[in-house]
Write a structure and sequence with these properties.
The protein is mainly alpha-helical and 390 residues long. It is 69% helix and 4% strand. It has helices spanning 5-13, 18-52, 54-60, 67-100, 108-140, 148-167, 181-192, 229-234, 237-252, 255-285, 297-310, 312-333, 337-345, 357-363, 369-382, and strands spanning 174-175, 200-203, 214-217, 224-228.
Length: 390
């Protein structure tokens, strides 16, 4: 009897109960509605900041002689105030809702302390980007948006270089994988791809989320692979190897660099649209601040955020391409299609596995679990694995 990839795919999806699928459907659909809600909340917060006059007051306290300092301070204040105004919504979306769906067990106090820490870091770093944008507007005039891609590329690369060594350890503990067969297997896979053992970590992702996950972060010498303790505890040895192979694929194939390039190119288009629409939106929000006036930073970044949100389907398409390539890398180099499939099914709890092609195209950063498992089963049919789980 020949192996049927479609039947094998259905068998994996059928390991999820009707209740699990319904819960995943509700959670995922809710996330999609939150995208629209986020734009509405952003508009409300922008209006409140403009009407409060707090940024105008900060602006008036700093001399014209210190233009860059004034921009930096106003941007930092904007970050803090906007975070405080959106905090009730953030608690609902990122903590209360996640708790009710069983996606996190993080205490509210810990969530709030990490939010405060994240806000402080954002105020320090984001304000540098804002200074750069207003410098471009002042120095390059109406075509400032053309130069924005280079600015975004430089800023993104800087934060990615900084993140693994400085920022991420503030939120989680990253440790070497404990001694044993899992560590030996993971290090062996890394060695085959030229990744040093000291670039592969386990982290306490369960502090924030119950999601079965792993990731690649950083660039150059700071790049590393990190596997959540949730995945380590729930996965079999072969599943860990398959998932690690996927993350190594991201690392080896340079997906981080591609994303920097894509986001930078998208920024040019987003900033172009922002430049063309800013004056109209500024009037509607009730500010007389011109495009190059940092008093209008709330309006400026509402537009930038909104246009990036509207461009999300295009960005999602690039991310999904990278995920398919990383799956293919794992299949080629680890050749554990069943282990990869069973690991993917564990992610269906927070990413509905049976979404339509249209829904996947618009909203999904990853191909659906059904599509990814089918690809793995098609690989298995064409390349019977030497070792696999049943």
């Amino acid at each position: 009897m020949s192996f049927d990839p479609q039947a094998a795919t259905e068998a994996y999806i059928n390991t999820l109960s009707a209740e699990e699928l319904e819960l995943a459907r509700d959670y995922t659909t809710g996330n999609h509605w939150l995208i629209l809600a986020g734009i509405v909340v952003g508009a409300l917060v922008t209006w409140l900041i403009v009407k409060s006059g707090v940024l105008d007051w900060i602006f008036s306290k700093i001399s014209d002689k210190w233009q860059n300092l004034r921009v930096y301070v106003v941007a930092a204040m904007f970050t803090i105030v906007s975070t405080l105004l959106t905090l009730p919504y953030s608690i609902y979306t990122d903590w209360w809702r996640e708790t009710n769906y069983g996606r996190t067990s993080q205490p509210l106090g810990d969530y709030l302390s990490q939010t405060a820490l994240g806000t402080a870091i954002s105020a320090l770093l984001f304000s540098l980007l804002v200074v750069g944008i207003y410098l471009l507007i002042r120095r390059t005039g109406r075509f400032w948006w053309i130069w924005s891609g280079g600015l975004v590329a430089a800023f993104t690369a800087f934060t990615m270089l900084l993140s693994p060594a400085v920022i991420e350890p503030m939120f989680n503990e990253f440790e070497p994988i404990p001694e044993g067969e899992v560590r030996d297997a993971v290090h062996a896979l890394g060695a085959e791809a030229g990744i040093p053992a000291d670039r592969i970590f386990m982290f306490d992702g369960s502090r924030q989320s119950e999601n079965f996950t792993a990731n690649v972060s950083g660039i150059g010498g700071s790049a590393r692979i990190a596997i959540s303790d949730v995945a380590m505890e729930e996965a079999s040895l072969d599943e860990v190897k398959a998932v690690t192979g996927h993350e190594i694929g991201h690392y080896v194939l340079g997906h981080v660099w591609r994303m920097i390039a894509v986001v930078s190119l998208m920024a040019i288009g987003v900033f172009f649209l922002t430049a063309r629409t800013y004056a109209w939106f500024a009037r509607k929000f009730g500010t007389d601040a011109e495009l190059g006036d940092v008093r209008g930073v709330a309006v400026l970044f509402f537009l930038i955020g909104t246009f990036f949100t509207l461009a999300q389907p295009a960005l999602n398409g690039i991310v999904r391409m990278g995920e398919r390539e990383a799956d293919a890398y794992s299949l080629r180099n680890v050749n554990l299609p069943d282990a990869l499939s069973s690991a993917l099914v564990k992610t269906a709890e927070y990413r509905y596995p049976l979404a339509s092609d249209l829904e996947e195209t618009i909203f999904y950063t990853h191909p659906t679990v059904e599509n990814r498992v089918r690809s793995a089963m098609e690989w298995k049919a064409a390349n019977p694995p030497a070792t696999d789980i049943e």
